[in-house]
Amino acid sequence: THCVELLLFVFIFFFLCLFSFSGSNCNSFKVNLPQTVKVMTGSCVTVPCSFDVQDKYEQNLNDNCEAIWRSRNNVRQLTDRNPQTGDLTKKNCTTTFSNMQTGLTKDYYFRIDCQSPLIWSFKPPYVKIEVTDNFPSPTLTPSTLKIKEGESVSLTCSAPAPCLPHPPTLIWTPKLGEIQETLQENQDKTKFKTSVMNFTASHLHHEQNISCTAVYKKQDGGSDSQKTTNSPKNVTVSVSPSGSVLENSNVTLTCSSDANPAEQNYTWYRADGGQETVFGNGKILNIKVSSDMRNLFCKAVNEIGEGRSNLRHIDVPNSIKDVHYVNSAALTEAENHQANTSTNLSYENVEETRECSGKTN
């Protein structure tokens, strides 16, 4: 039995050593890539990348090594994007590509060519380079804040920085205090830029709009692109059919606004003197006109804030001659979420709502 146990131990030990040795050889060729990087059309993009090779090939890493990026199906290479790659002798394959266009949206893999014997395609994994016109807007935090006059306020604006040589420019409007900027790293090694503005709340800031805009440099000859986040603004109500309608007639109401990100919900209100009563939800609403539903308005809400339309008056014969618009009563401070980054500051306890703003020129 002792001999059997000894033989079994030797066999298991040999098997584990063999498995460990072969496994290390296979796993020593590896690359670290993010799953996805997004870039604005016409701009540059940096793909974070690091790799490793088997020990016996370390000596083949030299200045003659070339980094090659190919699409998953090997149809496309990014050699015409003026690639700028890190130091391959230090296993840094981070590469920046210029003037990216939407047709280049694909999955890519990294290949190193140091001539024989070190030529290796690291696949999988793949990195998806997504070129888009619909680039994420900057974010402003915190989303709401209650403050008093004399208190210190700290606002943080952050935006993706897909291209290391040209990170976005973050602009505060208005500039109310000291600004500190840093370039930070996500877990997948992609970068983002933050700008922190610190100031002391004053009555002069009451209901003042504060916005943060991210400006990205373009390389395709187009204008630099600005991205903004804002609550719904330019909220309007349309009625179909337009003009005079008989009581109990069917009409279609539509609530529209400019918002980024898009509106999440719409609420309809009936106005009667000083009373405002909810009577429906949704961007489009079908109703029967009644005597108590002639004056109405809608509110549009997204994750940044809300916006409110002017009061819309529906003309019913024998009541009012013409369809016309009447400005709504002033919103309460808690309701007054304005477009762009709106900050409501006052002596007492007043809500502050900031929304990043930015638009593409």
TrEMBL record:
UniProt keyword Signal present: yes
Disordered: annotated segments: 218-242, 335-361
Pfam family, any one: Ig_3
Domain of life: Eukaryota
Sequence ranges assigned to domain Ig-like in this UniProt record: 136-230, 232-315
SUPFAM superfamilies in the cross-refs: Immunoglobulin (SSF48726)
Keyword Protease part of the UniProt annotation: no
Compositional bias (Polar residues): 222-242, 337-347
Organism: Poecilia mexicana
Protein name in the entry: Ig-like domain-containing protein
Keywords: Signal
Comp. bias intervals (Basic and acidic residues): 351-361
Residues making up the signal peptide according to the UniProt record: 1-22
InterPro entries named among the record's database cross-references: Ig-like_dom, Ig-like_dom_sf, Ig-like_fold, Ig_sub
